[in-house]
């Protein structure tokens, strides 16, 4: 089982990034997917959620209107499109698969400079 995040990096305030989380080794389409982030010295927080068919989504207030979660069950991949990035979005972003089991990716660093 693997969840591999990619797409992180350094971006200026106001910029955009698209994170991807590629899944393998389990039935991706049966799992709800979540993106979390953890900034230095802070607790990990849930950023966004999408249910298994990709119909229902949730966003934490801090990212509503700026971030979009989506998934492609044919490609076993979940995405997080991040627009209008702010320095406070700087964190390690990780994906999580929730279903019969609970799987986590290693995370990808997102750094937003002011």
How would you sum up this structure, described in words?
This protein is mainly beta. The protein is built from no helices and eleven strands. It has strands at 2-6, 9-12, 17-24, 32-38, 45-50, 57-59, 67-72, 77-82, 91-98, 102-104, 108-113. The strands form two sheets. Strands 2, 4, 5, 6, 9, 10 and 11 form a seven-stranded mixed β-sheet that branches.
Please render the helix and strand layout as text.
Blueprint: E1 2-6, E2 9-12, E3 17-24, E4 32-38, E5 45-50, E6 57-59, E7 67-72, E8 77-82, E9 91-98, E10 102-104, E11 108-113
Parallel strand pairs: 2-11
Antiparallel strand pairs: 1-3, 3-8, 4-5, 4-9, 5-6, 7-8, 9-10, 9-11
N-end to C-end Cα span: 37 Å
The coarse overall form would be: globular
Largest sheet: 7 strands, mixed
Number of helices: 0
* Strand-residue proportion: over 45%
Radius of gyration: 13 Å
Secondary-structure element string: EEEEEEEEEEE
Helix content: under 10%
Mean of all residue-level pLDDT scores: 97
**Which structural class matches the secondary elements?**
mainly beta
């Amino acid at each position: 089982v693997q969840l591999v995040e990619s797409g992180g990096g350094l971006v200026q305030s106001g910029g955009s990034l698209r994170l991807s989380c590629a899944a393998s080794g389990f039935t991706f389409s049966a799992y709800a997917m979540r993106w979390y982030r953890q900034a230095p010295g802070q607790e990990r927080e849930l950023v966004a959620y999408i249910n298994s068919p990709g119909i229902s989504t949730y966003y934490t207030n801090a990212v509503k209107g700026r971030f979009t979660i989506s998934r492609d069950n044919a490609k076993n991949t979940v995405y997080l499109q991040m627009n209008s990035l702010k320095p406070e979005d700087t964190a390690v972003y990780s994906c999580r698969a929730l279903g019969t089991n609970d799987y986590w990716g290693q995370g990808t660093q997102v750094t937003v400079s002011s």
